[in-house]
Amino acid sequence: MTFKFKQFSVNQDRCAMKIGTDGVLLGAWTPLINNPYNVLDIGAGTGILSLMLAQRSNAEQIDAIEIDEDAYEQCVENFEASPWGDKLFCFHAGLDEFVDEPEDEYDLIISNPPFYTDDYKSDNTSRDLARFEDALPFEELIEAAALLLSDNGIFSVIIPYKEEERFVAMCEELDLFPLKITRVKGTPTSEIKRSLLAFCRMEQNPQIDELVIEISRHNYTPEYIELTKEFYLKM
Length: 235
Hints:
Order of helices and strands: EEHEHEHEHEHHEHEEEEEH
Largest sheet: 8 strands, mixed
Strand content: 25-35%
Distance between the termini: 20 Å
Structural class: alpha/beta
Number of strands: 12
Strand order of the largest sheet: 5-4-3-6-7-9-8-10
Radius of gyration: 17 Å
Helix content: 25-40%
Low-confidence stretches: none
Shape: globular
């Protein structure tokens, strides 16, 4: 159950949420224009986002929080096995605990939040916890970002496209404004499935674009290859 990238590997046998396109997209896409000194990864899972940002950025400190014990232990192992073990830290905590005693403000806050808002649940409780929005409501995530983000910080997420309007409105209520929006489609003819969103504290005209992943099965678009080629072995 090891997922190999160009500069690091990720074990995921103990994590309910496996590595998928969403996480890799978010880790590769997230803007680093403010050259972040420190990063917070909320709901780290395997630690994939923290590891990607360790590779991409000059950040000195990357903190991750993970509530599920198995995922937390696996995340720590993945951090320690990586080339950047000295600057990656994972905390076994819920977001509410972490926010109660904030130590730092962060220049980048990143999250691939659990977002199944439907009432359907499966028989696998840890997978459900990882997948359902009641494990981390958007409200709680946005409030934490508004509290912990530095003045020139960036808050970056990937969510279902159908939730984009609501999420942006909730952020704006707390003075977090869109900086960049990329809407993701599987193929040129498919519906938009995901929104990559980056927010900052200054109101501005956001850069808005669209990303198509595949032209046909395993025939990736030049844009997707360009975005992920530093990570995927076969790109």
